[in-house]
Structures are given as C-alpha cells and as structure tokens.
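USER: Note each token:
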Amino acid sequence: MPTIVHEFDWPDRVVVGTIGPPGSRSFYLQVRSGSRIVSIALEKEQSALLAEKIDEILDQLITLEGNPFSIPTTTPIEIVDNDPLEQPVAAEFRTGSMSLGWDPTTVQFVIEAYPVDEDDDVRDPAEKSEMLLVRISVGTARAFAKRTREIVGAGRPMCPLCGYPVDADGHTCTLPDV
C-alpha cells in the first residue's frame, strides 16, 4: 500500500493550537500552504517535547563558530503567529511517533509525524500508510517553539500545594505524604 505523504516545503503557516477549554483541550499541529491545510491531532506532551527539542537544537546551532546558519536568538517579531487554528479543524490522523531532524544543506528543520496504529501502540515507520512531512526555516522554527510553549502553558493552573491541575469547577487538594 503506498504511503500518503502530506508534504510541506516552506509552508505559509505551521502552528500548534488547541480546541476546547483547559482540562479538555485537544491539541493539533496545523500546516498551511496556500489554500491547502492539513491538521493532525497530537498529545500535549508531544507538543511540549517538539518545542523543547527545536529550541535545544537551535541553541546548539547558535554556539557553532560564527553562527553559520544565522540562527535567531529570539523569535523574529514579523513571524509571530498568535492566531487561532484555521477552521474547520479535521484531523487527518492522531499522531503516534514523530521525528525531528536538521538539514544543514537547506538550513531547515524536518518534522515527520506518523499515525497511531489501532492494533499496536505505534506502527513500524517502514509500514506507515500516511505521514506528515514538514520542512521549516530556523526563524519559523523559533516562532513555532515559542508559540507551542505558550499554548502548552495556557492550560489549567497548578495547585501550589500539591502540584496537580486546578479545574475550573474546583479542586480537591491531595497533599503528598511527608
């Protein structure tokens, strides 16, 4: 069976966004190029880890002598994207495994996402029937990571006593055993 590849080179927009109230949010990675939009569902933890790893790689690349890739130290203001997800959001698939790579020949990050298999926890990448493949510039990657960290952090506040999330309708604090 041939693999359906949702491929984006230099997309117009790539963002993580949510639908739903804090505590019941669904996370999506959404990519747009022209009028073509692809959204995939992913977990909050996957979003946070993706942003963390992008920033780690960018910070490592900055330390290379002479910063040969012109890595921005902060998010370029002209590419900040705080707009909501484009509607309607229809996920192509729920993400299982993801990979993040760096291509020094094009000075781009390469993000790959594969669907969760209903039979196994995660499909073997060699047997995938569908995937998302996105290549983004370093500036876009910095903006993506910043926005994603903000989206992840915008959930329910944490209880200062027990460290668990506080729901909008209340919270029963369970203090850890001391």
